[in-house]
């Protein structure tokens, strides 16, 4: 597994709330750059995420597998799935799980009389079966503090790339093999979530070279 990048779920430049997302079919210079041929391309990578708070319509394809999600600000909005490509296990769209949508945009649905996120490319979606608060806590403990030992808190910046890491998730950084061994039982409770989050962080957010899905 490649080393996760150093960013944060709290960084709203890369992880915007629903209200901060660009609107579909509009040129938002904060998110897109118009090319000489008139095509709009992202100027960075962003990902919306929210915890599913209602899944009563999630298994109904005719209604877009609609789920209601709570974003990082606490506001609740809909995500609807009308796939044209990709694959996603819709059974995972359950209350308490957290949905990540790369390149998400707000779309107005006249029948709902409101804006929602419309997903067409399913490979831009990742579902982690854990609530939002636990993911925020895990990211803060392991991804936001990679300059400090996950066991004793000592600064590991001087070790550079030589700092010992958890071999599974690569997110937990230590000042010594002894600290890594001592912390193994506690970290074991978070390692699986770190592996899931590493797939969210494992790309360059501040530039756009090509569309990056969660799955091929």
Automatic annotation (TrEMBL):
Residues 149-191 form the MYND-type domain. This is MYND-type domain-containing protein. One of its GO terms (molecular function) is zinc ion binding. The lineage of its organism: Eukaryota, Viridiplantae, Chlorophyta, core chlorophytes, Chlorophyceae. Keywords: Metal-binding, Zinc, Zinc-finger. Pfam families: zf-MYND. SUPFAM superfamilies: HIT/MYND zinc finger-like (SSF144232). The keyword Transit peptide does not apply.
